[in-house]
Specification:
The chain has 115 residues and is mostly beta strands. The strands form 2 sheets. Strands 2, 4, 5, 6, 9, 10 and 11 form a 7-stranded mixed beta sheet that branches. A 4-stranded antiparallel beta sheet has the order 1-3-8-7, with no helix packed on it. 27% of the residues are buried.
Amino acid sequence: QVQLVESGGGLAQPGGSLRLSCAASGFTFSNYAMRWYRWPPGKEREWVARIDSTGSSTSYGEAVKGRFTVSRDNVKNTIYLQMNSLKSDDTAAYYCNVWTDKDYYGQGTQVIVSS
């Protein structure tokens, strides 16, 4: 079955960086676009980034554009989210997502941006 496992979250200072990873299994990874979402505390889910199946096309939510970069390794079946110039508003649980026969999410990884 589809499994997504996020890692790399933690505490960062404003202006700092973190790199999230999402290891995927249970489906043909290289055939599917992947997405990152986040749930800030007390707020609604927010789409963060999308990467197509080959990694040649990416898109970003307005709040993270120019600061975050999504990438993938189709050999390691893993996607990444490089987060730079972090702000307190980036504090959230981050989830990777794939739609195959339905939507799948991992367990999430918590990012806290605070001084």
